[in-house]
């Protein structure tokens, strides 16, 4: 078993004597190298991934800072011939669906059920995968849209609650449910290779992921400043205030574990 990476091991005593700009750039390189090495160790251990063309790896993908960074790092260390599957989970909002159906009945046309899954994370995921394709157009990026109907969620809720830990808040349940349905890997893949929000259901093909490893960026937002509180800290006091907020957030997360 390999021991955990320690950032301190990748620094040297000269860092503190550099200028602030040099020290900042050095810190960025150190963090990048640590994260990249952590991802490399995990993906290289997937049995048979380098010999097969079948996708062996998938990422829980919201398009946010955490999953976007994880996807970009995975691209650097994962075999180039292998597709990378990005699983984006969205839960139906019964109130939104009822409103859409009511509007469609009034206007005399059918409701487009896929629109009820156009959550902020889903829309961000669609934009994010386009950016990943611009970064590496040679990589086959597969955005798999997993839509969970309200009744389907209720049918599996007790099982999720039985499996999840920690289990002390609504947020715990939300995260666990996303992981649960993502791990099933049952969703839709756009037939034309696009992720247009206006694409009709007929343009989407049922898809089942057979990936054996699912990567998640949980915890990365705390370290990389991916929350609105970090943006507010930057606007309030610049780099110094942002650094203080990141340290505070990471400490809070450690205490919660």
From TrEMBL:
Query: What InterPro entries does this protein's entry cite?
Result: Asn_synthase, Asn_synthetase_domain, Rossmann-like_a/b/a_fold
- Using the record, list the residue span of the signal peptide; answer none if the entry has no such feature: none
Domain (Asparagine synthetase) ranges: 44-110, 206-241
Q: Which Gene3D superfamilies match?
A: HUPs (3.40.50.620)
- Pfam families recorded: Asn_synthase (PF00733)
- Please tell me whether the keyword Amino-acid biosynthesis is annotated for this protein: yes
- This chain's protein is named Asparagine synthase
